[in-house]
Amino acid sequence: MHDDYVLIARLMIPTDAHVIRGCLAAAGIDVLLTDDQHMQADMLLAAAIGGARVLVREHDVARANEILAAFERGDLALADDADVGAPLAE
């Protein structure tokens, strides 16, 4: 099995790329995010470099694509009244 990183998404909004990275990392998937810093420094570069790139290991591609699809469907969205400051249940 190969352990190379594979491109699974290109996002034109760096914040979206970081949210996706967080969702994948929370699922235990190793993630690399590239070119997001270039875009934040100069948004005019976004189109030239093709957006922020999200990469995962080759063996995690199928699971990562499932998480991306769930994110795009809105399955991972918080409710409008979600209390994100609430303490974890013990």
From TrEMBL:
<feature type="domain" description="DUF2007">
    <location>
        <begin position="14"/>
        <end position="72"/>
    </location>
</feature>
<dbReference type="Pfam" id="PF09413">
    <property type="entry name" value="DUF2007"/>
</dbReference>
<dbReference type="InterPro" id="IPR011322">
    <property type="entry name" value="N-reg_PII-like_a/b"/>
</dbReference>
<dbReference type="InterPro" id="IPR018551">
    <property type="entry name" value="DUF2007"/>
</dbReference>
<protein>
    <submittedName>
        <fullName>Putative signal transducing protein</fullName>
    </submittedName>
</protein>
